[in-house]
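Long-time lurker, finally posting.

We've been working with Cupin domain-containing protein (Actinomadura graeca) and I want a structural starting point before designing mutants. I don't trust myself to interpret raw outputs, so I'm hoping someone here can both generate the C-alpha cells and explain anything notable. Sequence follows.
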Amino acid sequence: MLEIKSIDKPDERRDFPRGHLELVQMTGLVFARATFEPGWRWTESLRDIAGTDLCQVHHNGYVVEGRIRIRMEDGSEQEGGPGDAFVVTPGHDAWVVGDEPCVVFDFAGGMDAYAKAAGS
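Top reply, 14 upvotes:
Generated this for you. Predicted structure of Cupin domain-containing protein:
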C-alpha cells in the first residue's frame, strides 16, 4: 500500500474560537495541522465543544512555529516551541504563549475527535 495526501488540501477543516484544524484521513492515520491564534486556550476555546473540563485527546505532535504551554491535570507543565516534538496524554489544558500564532502537526490519531461536539 502507498498513500500520499497533502495537508495543504485537507479532507476536512474545523474552525473554532481563535483557531482551526485541518485534517487528512489516511489508512491507519489521521494527520492534522492545528493553527492556534494568540489568546487561544483550550479551556476557553474548546471546553464547551468537547464537553469536558480538560482535553481528553492523546497527542503526538511537532511544533512548527510559535509557542505552546501545556499543563497536565496533576499541575505539571512544559512549554514547546519550533522544532519540539511532544507526547501529551489525556487530561490537559494548553495555550498559546506570546503574540504569534502557534502551528502544530499532530499524528496521534485521536485528532479525528478533536474540536468536534461531544457525541458527534
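Before you design anything, note these points.
Helices lie at 42-45, 47-50.
The chain has a mean pLDDT of 93.
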